[in-house]
């Protein structure tokens, strides 16, 4: 019975740590660029686009498809690059509470 109470206590600790970690994800940011730096996208750990810079030279109504492609590329790269930072943050937040189980990815709980 004592093991069950200990497990319940750890689960409450994990829950509290995960909530705090999730709130802190907005402070983790990653910026990526495309088009040789002409488009820069910034995302946070909650996978939200929080900034977008476009070089004025790219704004050409006759070639909007290129601009769209560069924006998509920059945003996707930033989202890809933020993933390791999110995983590291969540691992630190649950260290000592959650056992290190290979293949168990806590970042999937943050979506």
UniProtKB/TrEMBL annotation:
Q: Which InterPro entries match?
A: YbaB-like_sf (IPR036894), YbaB/EbfC (IPR004401)
Question: Which species is this record about?
Answer: Dyadobacter jejuensis
Q: What is the designated name of this protein?
A: Nucleoid-associated protein CLV98_11123
The major lineage groups are:
Bacteria, Pseudomonadati, Bacteroidota, Cytophagia, Cytophagales
Which molecular function terms from Gene Ontology are attached? Answer: DNA binding
Task: Kindly state the subunit structure of this protein.
Answer: Homodimer.
Q: What does it do? A: Binds to DNA and alters its conformation. May be involved in regulation of gene expression, nucleoid organization and DNA protection.
Q: Provide one Gene Ontology cellular component.
A: bacterial nucleoid
Q: Where in the cell is it found?
A: Cytoplasm, Nucleoid
Q: Which NCBIfam families does the record cross-reference, listed alphabetically? A: DNA_YbaB_EbfC
Q: Keywords, A to Z? A: Coiled coil, Cytoplasm, DNA-binding
């Amino acid at each position: 019975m004592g093991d069950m109470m200990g497990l319940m206590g750890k689960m409450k600790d994990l829950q509290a740590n995960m909530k705090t970690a999730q709130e802190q994800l907005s402070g983790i940011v990653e910026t990526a660029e495309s088009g040789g730096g002409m488009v820069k996208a910034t995302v946070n750990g909650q996978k939200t686009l929080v900034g977008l810079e476009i070089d004025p030279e790219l704004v050409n109504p006759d070639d909007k498809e290129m601009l769209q492609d560069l924006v998509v590329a920059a945003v996707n790269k930033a989202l890809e690059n933020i993933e390791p930072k999110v995983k590291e943050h969540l691992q630190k937040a649950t260290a000592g509470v959650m056992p290190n189980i290979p293949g168990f990815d806590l970042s999937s709980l943050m979506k």
